[in-house]
Amino acid sequence: MPNPHWRLPVAAGLLAMLGSLLSAAPAAEAAPTAFSHPGVLVSRAQLDFVRGKVQSGAQPWKAAYDQMHASKYASLTRTAKPRAVVECGSYSNPNYGCTDEREDALAAYTLALEWYITRDTRYAAKAAEIMDAWSGTITDHTNSNAPLQTAWSASTWPRAAEIVRYTWGGWASDKVSRFGSMLRNVYLPEVVNGSNSNGNWELSMNEATIGIAVFLDDRTVYDKAVARFRNRVPAYVYLASDGALPKTAPGSGLDTRAEIVGYWQGQSTFVDGLTQETCRDFTHTGYGLAAISHVAETSRIQGQDLYPEVADRLRHALGFQSKYQLGEAVPSWLCGGSLKLGLGPVTEVGFNALHNRLGYGMTNTQTLTEQRRPAGTDNLFTAWETLTHASNPS
Questions:
Q1: 103 and 152 in contact (C-beta within 8 Å)?
Q2: Tens of pLDDT, residues 48-89
C-alpha cells in the first residue's frame, strides 16, 4: 500500500518552486527600473519620426507643423509672465496669472518641439528661458481652481522640460535642478493626492503627477499615479460589464444609486462609452479622455503599457463621443435628448494607440480625427497632437 506521506514533501517542493517563480516575475504594477528620457507623452523615437515626416514634406505632419509654427506659442520674441502666486477661481475668475501660466507652459512645449524638428538652438534656448523664469518665481497656486490650474500647467511643463533637458545639452544644470524643485515643491503637492471633483479634474491631476514623476525619476510618485489611474478610469467611463451602475472611485463617498446618478449629471441609463461628464458637456469630457490617453502614452514609453488595461473603455468613450460630435441624432434617453457638443482636439493620441498600434476598429473616431486634422491646441494642456501622434508607429 503506498505511503500517503510521500505526497507532502513533493507538494511542498512544488509549492516552493511555484512561489519562487511567482516572486521572480515582475509585478505588473511596478514602475520601470530606469525611466526613459525624453519620456513624457513623446519619446525620442516618436520625435525622430515626426522630424523625418516634416522634413520630407509628408502630410498631415507638414501641415500640422506649419500650424504650430504660425501659432503665438512658437514666437522667439515671447516674454514669459511668471508670478509668485497664481490665483484661479472657478472658471478662472479671478484670473491672476492663470492664462499666462498655461500659455507659457504651452509655449515652452511648442518651442521644444520646434527645436527638435528644426535643430535651431534658438528655440531650445527660448523654451529654457521661459521655464527658468517660472522656476525662479512661482511659489504657490490659490483659490478654488488651484488643483485644476496646477494640473493643466504641470501636464505641459514636463513635456517641454524632458525634450530640452535630454536632447539639447544647453540647459544649465543648476536651472534644471531648480525646475525640478519647482515641480516637486510647488506643483506636485497640489496634484499627487487627486480629487473627488468631476473626473476630468483627477485625470488631469493624474497626468501631471506621472509627468512630474518621470522628470524627477521618482518611482514612488510614479507608482502612486498609476494606482490612482487604475481606480479613476473605470469610474469615469462606463462599460456594460460594470453592472447596473458605474464603478466609483475609492473615497468618493458615492454609496447609493441616487448619488451615483447625480454624480453622472442626472443620467440614469448607462451604455458602453458613456462618461461621467458626457451629460455635462463634451468639452470637459474631452479633457478627461485626453488625460487618459496621455497617461497611457507616457506609461507605454516608460515600458509599462497601460493601454491594454483601459483599451475597451477608451475606445468606446472616444467612439461614443465622436458619433454624436459628428451629428448623429441624440436619443431621448441620453442627457434628456440634448447634448452640449464641443469635443476638443483630443482624439489623436488614443486613436493612434488603439487603432494603429492595437488594431481596434474605430470608425467614428477615425472619421472625426481625420476631418479635424491638423489638430491644434485647446490652450490649456492639449497641443499639436496631429504633429506628434498621427500614425506614429514608435
A1: no
A2: 999 999 999 999 999 999 999 999 999 999 999 999 999 999
Judge contact between 272 and 313, C-beta under 8 A. no
Q: Which amino acid is at 383?
A: A
Residues in Cβ contact with 327 at an 8 Å cutoff, skipping those fewer than 6 apart: none
Instruction: For residues 43 and 147, give the distance between their C-alpha atoms in angstroms, rounded to a whole number.
Output: 27
State how far the alpha carbon of 341 is from the alpha carbons of 261, 306, 334, 391, in Å. Answer: 21, 28, 13, 26
Residue labelled with grid coordinates 509672465: 81
Q: Which residues pair with 377 in a beta bridge?
A: 383
Tens of pLDDT along 148-191? 999 999 999 999 999 999 999 999 999 999 999 999 999 999 99
* Residue labelled with grid coordinates 511567482: 22
Our separate counts of H helices and E strands in the chain read: 16, 5
**Is the pTM higher than 0.70?**
yes
- The secondary structure of residue 4, as a DSSP letter, is G
Amino acid at 347: T
Residue whose entry in the numeric block shows the C-alpha cell 454609496: 255
